[in-house]
Write a structure and sequence with these properties.
By secondary structure, this protein is mostly helical. The chain has 19 helices and no strands. The chain is globular, with a radius of gyration of 22 Å. The N and C termini lie far apart (66 Å).
């Protein structure tokens, strides 16, 4: 190589291998996320051949985290959550508790400290947004009743994980297996209160000043007529708020980016901002998954196969069964319960962020991160198979629910799931659902 260019080498190899393995995964009707993780394993230190610069990959993955969290905030819909709040909020909280306790039970059996078990269990409790939304979109379920419940459930999980990312560093002394000298209640309470105070100040500033400044900046940028300037304004808001919040308030990059996305979502230009920033968000999200794959040691599959199996069972069976029972307890149809159970029977982005945070703070051993990554890859591989099985059961479920109507009737405004997918005629296709599209759809429904 004529020049020492580790940054270019890391980005180039990351993109090339991610494309190759992602395309192969897509060809096999699997989530491309599996391909991106495998690409990271290929350039990681645990496999022969080229090894990408670990420090640079970590920096790139941080940008990926910022843009991922910005995207989560940008698509955060309080309206969607409130529409299914009666089942999504208690259901998600109970399911998170159940999965966390199952994970802590496994780590207790391994002899880990309870703090490590808590982080491990939390990482197993949250589903991947990428995997869930893709599966629902492929089956035209996003706007269905069960799709809305699944998405609302996922929003609650994401909010809980954002809170966990804020609190874990502040509680590191309490969660550590070897607490530092003098780490009593007062020494833990003060950092916790200080962290919560900084977060509260940041949120207050974002709501008051950011709620006016960010939409104003977007409006001015859009009014310039320059698409490049508008896109630059969106990225400047995402990166600037994320970095500024970390420097001025000591909160994580992830929280700053999430709130920047939330505030931007309230602007009338939110759809354009989401579309214009999508290519860069997708690109750095790929690099994030590649960087996560670099941390994975594949030897865990041979050294600890039973632990990997136990982790997968918690993710797929433990979480899935908990979600199934919770939804049935709310007297929802079996098809709804099974869809949500299968949708949540996998883990992804937040799991990797929590695992990396736990290892970096020395709260969880590296084998815990390896188990989480192995469990994630296997669960994501299994997820399409579970959905295919559910698709085969769907005609039977529809016939069963038509014979046995549920106790609480579906509101007329809410789409019913007791129908098979629509045929390709006698209906209208509406592309776009902004200010004009939403009015057109209302007229069509009327």
């Amino acid at each position: 190589m004529p020049h020492h260019t580790p940054l270019i080498a890391a980005i180039a190899t990351g993109f090339v291998l991610a494309f190759i393995f992602g395309a192969l995964a897509n060809r096999l009707r699997l989530s491309p996320l599996v391909g991106y993780l495998l690409a990271g394993v290929m350039v990681g230190p645990f496999t022969p051949g080229f090894v990408a610069d670990k420090d640079l990959s970590h920096e790139l993955s941080e940008i990926g985290v910022i843009l991922l969290m910005f995207g989560v905030g940008l698509h955060f819909s309080l309206k969607d959550l409130l529409a299914v709040k009666n089942i999504a909020i208690p259901g998600a909280l109970v399911q998170i508790l159940a999965a966390t306790l199952l994970g802590m039970g496994l780590t207790w059996w391994l002899g880990w400290h309870w703090g490590a078990g808590l982080i491990f269990g939390l990482a197993l409790s949250v589903a991947s947004t990428v995997v869930l939304l893709r599966a629902l979109e492929e089956r035209q379920l996003i706007d269905s009743r069960r799709g809305k419940i699944a998405v609302g459930w996922l929003i609650v999980e994401d909010l809980v994980m954002v809170l966990a990312l804020v609190l874990i560093p502040a509680l590191a002394g309490l969660l550590s297996a070897e607490p530092s000298a003098g780490s009593g209640e007062q020494d833990i309470l003060w950092p916790l209160l200080l962290t919560l105070g900084k977060v509260a100040a940041f949120i207050a500033l974002m709501i008051t000043l950011g709620g006016r400044l960010i939409p104003w900046l977007l409006e001015r940028s859009a009014g310039s007529g320059s698409r490049e300037l508008f896109t630059l304004a969106v990225l400047a808001i995402a990166m600037g708020v994320s970095y500024g919040s970390a420097v001025l308030f000591g909160v994580s990059f992830a929280l700053g980016a999430f709130f920047a996305g939330m505030i931007l979502n309230s602007s009338q230009y939110n759809h354009q901002a989401a579309d214009d920033s999508r290519p860069l968000r997708d690109a750095f999200a790929v690099l994030f998954f590649v960087a996560v794959g670099m941390l994975f040691n594949p030897s865990i599959l041979l050294d600890e196969p039973l632990l990997v199996l136990a982790t997968v069972l918690i993710i797929v069976l433990g979480k899935g069964l908990a979600a199934l029972l919770i939804v049935l307890a709310f007297r929802k149809p079996l098809s709804t319960a099974l869809t949500i159970a299968v949708s949540l029977a996998q883990i992804g982005e937040f799991s990797f962020i929590l695992a990396s945070l736990g290892v970096s703070l020395e709260l969880m051993p590296e084998v815990g991160r390896d188990l989480i990554l192995a469990g994630a890859i296997i669960a994501i591989l299994l997820n399409p198979m579970l959905f295919s099985l559910l698709d085969r059961l769907q005609p039977w479920l529809v016939a069963r629910e038509q014979r046995q109507p549920e106790a609480s009737p579906t509101p007329a405004s809410e789409p019913s799931d007791n129908v098979l997918p629509p045929s390709e005629n006698a209906h209208t296709i509406l592309i776009g659902h902004g200010r004009a599209g939403s009015r057109i759809s209302q007229r069509l429904q009327a």
